[in-house]
Design a protein that fits this description.
CATH class of the largest domain in chain B: Alpha Beta
CATH topology of the largest domain in chain B: Rossmann fold
Shape of chain B: globular
Structural class of chain A: alpha/beta
Strand order of the largest sheet of chain B: 3-2-1-4-5-6-11
Strand content of chain B: 5-15%
Helix content of chain A: 25-40%
Shape of chain A: globular
Number of helices of chain B: 16
Order of helices and strands of chain B: EHEEHEHEHEEHEEEHEEHEHHHHHHHHH
Largest sheet of chain A: 7 strands, antiparallel
Oligomer: heterodimer
Radius of gyration of chain B: 23 Å
Chain lengths: 536, 452
């Protein structure tokens, strides 16, 4: 049995590793692997945490007060809290260049999904029409992921967009605001379905409504944003922990892989990795190499390897990401109502819009405001902070935000390439993205439809608060080394095996030929399991 | 000196006492605080140890209490709170502490009460009632004890001094009653000295000792002296008869206790003599006591740069949340300025905005009415947002309450309309004031880079 070397411990890498470990392979996982800090006061809810921590300001705002959101031209309402800053920490000397794209990189153990919001949205058969394998394969793997990580969900009006799979857990109790929206939806359902083709339902979320192994069910502490302290909310580092229990698993953190080397038959023989905090490179022998470092970093390793062996500076076209629009809203039915801090904090509802195009689904995630840092909201109101504070106190329960996602397609003008380093270190990744010409019209249509749907539910979007996020913000990157039915240059097979290098596999988003308007994480995990089961 | 157990170290008097006590040759000072103390420059002594909890968390402190020879009990609920809270914190808390002292074998107990415990009229003055009851518990405890009753305590960051100075700063100074009631303010540093001398001399003979400053004067004279110190001019005063005020406030308290700026109980200062019965301890210290003038003159603090920032923090906190900031909030506000360049003065216009805003909460409101629309990224606005972020990170009792006060939609609509009008008026005024300055002085500084 070949020894498998995996690069990256995000959702793809962690679930791929677990699957091949279960099959008995010897696995080495190379990772920069910045670890999350230990959970503090796991019993405390949001308010109790403020009371019981020795230094609550240090926890919520950080040692350098980096958690204070100051007025910024990016108009982002929230930053990553200090307790999760490990997810955005970068290795020494890491740099990139981008045009039209504002990327996030994560070198954390567990990857950027350590700071995800848990949405588990299976693609449907139409959406994977360009993927060169049968939908039933993926559907089965969705069930396996759900059993591994714990996903809550029900079959409701959103089921028309999300295929049913095994392993779903019963849902959590809805928070007050979400429950009110569902009640109003029940009253206005006919109008919303027929006139606007909008459907409201419960989102599927990677959190536990009952204990799963050592993980406890959601205790409604209202601390999701700062990091679930008892493991109810799933992040990939939990699967990495599972892998570490296998004797045939070797985890090598602190290494940033630069490139791989091949023999004359184009078989990968070694990977070259630099210590993340500086130092001479190491070479690790490889029998089968699996890149799972995320679309951007896997592509960079691929580009660098070809550059180092042939001198060719490639462009990998087809970079995709979901355009996201943040639409804050006020539910007029809930003005002046008190809020309950003891609640699951992230989105519990989704708004699906049927555009008539089977691949053009528009997906909105509705997050109602529960516990949160309020100064980012207060400062955006057009009044002095004292008045703003009064307003936020009385609007707290009535506030929410809908995060609207649009699909993306592979286009030649959106590409990744590298700019080689002057010394022997890793090169710099270069990204280039231009929105599709018709995107502006799609964005306008989506905004107008969501506005009407919200109005039907008694909610208004305050003027000036809407924010079209830059490309790169959704961190759903895909498409640079796509699966293809026919072997072509810089593509992969249906089993995500490179058509250039026979013992190289890519199991992350780089292999997607199309990106629906859905969080990709759930499909990343399912596809990684599919590849591990069929190709190994 | 053997080890000392101190409650209320994070409060106004406790903070000063600890700064003084930690230089004494005390084996250990165990400080029970609900909050971590502001780590002031003079602290950081290894003989100080903090225990986090309330008086009812006996398990947190029982073992440490057993190592102590003497307890100094300062912790108390002051200000304005629901009546039951005073009795829970001040009476029940003291009872639990006394019981734990007895079981832990502590010998000496110094209780810092208040001159108000001896007021003749304490109706609806729950703080004074609770202090009187707590004194009784101390007397009956069987421990060797002394009860200290300070008069109104002045000094840097004194809540009572700040409250009176706010009154004295109004265009017409309201005086409740005839204004002839005598008061005798004492400096917080002198209170600390009295406490030190009792502990050093082991004077625990069951006495109740009243302590005050060197000078008694009428409350009206005090307000006028404050005004003169502040502006150089005497004040116009307006006497509000207590015979009308008390029944009106009593009726309002039934309806809206939480929302009143002043309560009947708090008016006791204007009705009861706040001077002391001289005693041997006071006479011994009298020549060294700080004068009233020195209390009213604003002293620059030891760190010349910290003083304006601390004042600014006080003003901004009063604008944002009402009460004065806790020492922990102040410490964090100062710390942020030391850690990040985002909060330092940048341009001439930034400095002008800050100069206006620091004058007082009303000026902060006026400045922010302008800045929220026309100077969103000014240093002033960043500082205000920083403080809001700090206040919402601390426990609700110390920061923002985040509470709905008007659940009735009709009442909420009325209040919102009133707030909208007030904002519009401030906006108009502020534009008239700041727009010419903005044109003359140029723009605010910008934050560089993608983050601060």
């Amino acid at each position: 049995m070949d020894r498998v070397v995996i690069v990256g411990s995000g959702p793809s890498g962690a679930h791929f590793a677990l699957s091949v470990l279960q099959k008995g392979y010897d696995v080495t996982l190379l990772d920069v692997g910045y670890a999350k800090p230990p959970a503090v006061n796991p019993e405390d809810n949001f308010i109790a945490l403020k009371r019981n921590l020795a230094d609550p300001v240090g926890y919520f705002l950080g040692e350098d007060y980096e958690g204070v959101v100051l007025p910024n031209p990016k108009k982002e309402y929230y930053g990553i809290p200090p307790s999760k800053s490990f997810a955005l920490r970068r290795p020494r000397g890491f740099a990139f260049d981008s045009r039209g794209f504002a990327p996030f990189f994560s070198f954390a153990a567990g990857g950027i999904a350590e700071v995800w919001t848990g949405g588990c949205y299976p693609f449907n058969a139409e959406e994977i029409a360009d993927f060169p394998f049968d939908f039933s394969e993926l559907l089965r793997c969705y069930g396996e992921v759900a059993r591994r990580i714990g996903v809550i969900g029900v079959e409701d009006d959103l089921a028309r967009f999300f295929p049913r799979h095994d392993g779903l857990l019963p849902p959590l109790e809805l928070d007050f605001h979400s429950a009110r929206l569902m009640d109003d939806y029940a009253r206005r359902r006919a109008h919303l379905n027929a006139k606007l083709r909008c459907y409201l339902g419960r989102t599927r979320i990677a959190t536990l409504s009952r204990d799963l192994g050592a993980r406890k069910k959601c205790a409604s502490l209202g601390r999701c944003l700062w990091g679930c302290p008892n493991g109810a909310f799933y992040t990939p580092s939990l699967t990495l922990d599972e892998c570490r229990a296998f004797p045939n698993f070797r985890y090598l953190p602190g290494l940033r892989v630069s490139h791989f080397r091949c023999d004359s038959a184009r078989r990968v023989t070694h990977v070259v990795a630099f210590p993340a905090e500086g130092g001479p490179p190491q070479e690790i022998p490889v029998e089968r190499l699996v890149l799972a470092a995320g679309t951007l970093c896997s592509s960079q390793i691929y580009l660098e390897s070809i550059y180092r062996s042939t001198g060719e500076l490639l462009r990998l076209p087809g970079l995709m990401d979901n355009r996201q629009i943040l639409m804050p809203f006020v539910n007029l039915h809930l003005l002046g109502k008190p809020y309950n801090p003891e609640s699951y904090q992230y989105h519990q509802l989704g708004l699906g819009i049927d555009t008539g195009d089977p691949k053009g689904y528009v997906h909105g995630q509705i997050t109602t405001l529960k516990t949160a840092m309020l100064h980012p909201i207060m400062q955006n109101l057009p009044c002095d902070l004292c008045t703003a504070r009064f307003l936020v106190d009385h609007l707290h329960t009535a506030l929410g935000v809908i995060n609207v996602n649009l699909h993306d397609t592979r286009r030649p003008g959106n590409y990744l390439t590298i700019s080689p380093s002057k010394d022997s270190g890793p090169s710099q990744l270069v990204m280039h993205y231009e929105p599709a010409p018709e995107e502006e019209a799609r964005v306008r249509w989506a905004i107008s439809t969501v506005r009407k749907a919200l109005l039907a539910l008694g909610c208004v979007v305050p003027p000036g608060m809407l924010h079209v996020r830059p490309m790169g913000a959704s961190v759903h990157y895909a498409g640079t080394l796509p699966m293809s039915r026919t072997p072509g240059r810089h593509t992969t097979s249906e089993l995500c095996q490179s058509h250039e290098f026979p013992n190289l596999f890519l199991v992350d988003g780089a292999t997607y030929p199309f990106l629906p308007a859905k969080n990709v994480t759930f499909t990343l995990m399912a596809n990684a399991i599919r590849v591990a089961e069929r190709a190994f | 000196m053997k080890s000392i157990f101190l409650t209320g170290a994070s409060g106004f008097v406790g903070h000063h006492l600890l700064s003084r006590l930690c230089f004494e040759p005390v084996a250990q000072i165990f400080c029970l605080t609900r909050r971590p103390l502001a780590v002031t420059p003079q602290l950081g002594h290894d003989n100080v140890r903090f225990l986090h909890g309330s008086l009812s968390d006996v398990a947190v402190y029982r073992d440490f209490l057993a190592q102590c020879d003497c307890v100094i009990h300062l912790a108390a609920l002051t200000g304005k709170a629901p009546p039951a809270e005073y009795f829970r914190s001040n009476v029940e808390g003291t009872r639990i502490l006394l019981e734990t002292c007895r079981s832990a074998g502590v010998k000496k107990f110094l209780f810092v009460s208040s001159i108000a415990a001896g007021f003749s009229e304490k109706q609806r003055y729950y703080y004074a009632q609770s202090k009187e009851q707590a004194e009784q518990l101390v007397r009956q405890s069987g421990l060797r004890h002394t009860i200290l009753r300070p008069t109104m305590i002045f000094g840097p960051a004194s809540p009572v001094q700040a409250g009176l100075e706010r009154l004295a700063a109004l265009p017409v100074v309201p005086v409740f009653g005839d204004g002839r009631t005598p008061v005798q303010p004492i400096h917080v540093g002198d209170v600390a000295e009295f406490i030190m001398s009792i502990v050093a001399a082991e004077r625990f003979a069951g006495e109740t000792l009243e302590i005050g400053g060197p000078q008694a004067l009428s409350i009206e004279d005090l307000l006028r002296r404050m005004r003169i110190h502040r502006t150089g001019k005497d004040a116009l005063t307006l006497h509000l008869p207590l015979s009308l005020l008390i029944p009106a406030l009593t009726a309002l308290e039934v309806l809206a206790y939480r929302f009143l700026p002043i309560t009947v109980g708090q008016l006791a200062t204007f009705r009861n003599s706040g001077t002391i019965q001289p005693n041997s301890l006071w006479q011994q210290h009298a020549p060294q006591l700080r004068s009233l003038d020195s209390m009213l003159t604003r002293q620059p603090a030891a760190g010349a740069e910290i003083a304006p920032l601390a004042r600014e923090c006080n003003v901004f906190a009063r604008f944002l949340s009402g009460p004065m900031p806790s020492p922990y909030v102040l410490e964090k506000y100062l710390h942020a300025h030391a850690r990040s360049a985002a909060f330092t003065d940048a341009t001439r216009f930034d400095r002008a905005l800050l100069a206006f805003a620091r004058r007082g909460p009303f000026w902060t409101r006026l400045t922010d009415s302008f800045a929220c629309l026309f100077a969103r990224r000014s240093v002033f606005r960043r500082k205000l947002i920083l403080l809001a972020a700090i206040l919402e990170s601390v426990p609700p009792e110390q920061g923002f309450l985040d509470a709905v006060r008007f659940a009735n939609p009709f009442a909420l609509a009325l209040v919102l309309a009133a707030k909208g009008l007030a904002f519009a008026a401030c906006l108009l005024l502020s534009v008239l004031l700041f727009l010419p300055l903005r044109i003359a002085l140029g723009p605010c500084g910008e934050l560089g880079g993608e983050s601060h």
